Amino acid sequence: MDKSAMERLLLLADFSVTLNGVMNVATGASHDVFKTVPSTSVARTTTIAFTEVGGSTVHTLANEVLYTDYPITRGQDGALTWAVPGVLSDGTVPSWTSA
Fold this sequence. Notes:
Blueprint: H1 3-9, E1 16-22, H2 29-34, E2 43-51, E3 58-67, E4 72-74, E5 80-88, E6 97-98
Antiparallel strand pairs: 1-5, 2-3, 3-5, 3-6, 4-5
């Protein structure tokens, strides 16, 4: 077992995320990205970014993620919503960067 596997077993180098959204049929952007999730095991670069309140510093966290499902459901308002769960694919320690 190498260092990254041991860190992952101890949850020191793990990452999981669930992305949520509403289907936008006009652009289809989210569907184009996630429609192959149920039939492929492709690592996808996923970047989370935010700017500090009152500041100009942008923090980003980029990981290679395997998405495991792409469920689409219809809400009570008739909107099609999706929630795509993903997990760290390569054991690389997640780390924030600032710019």
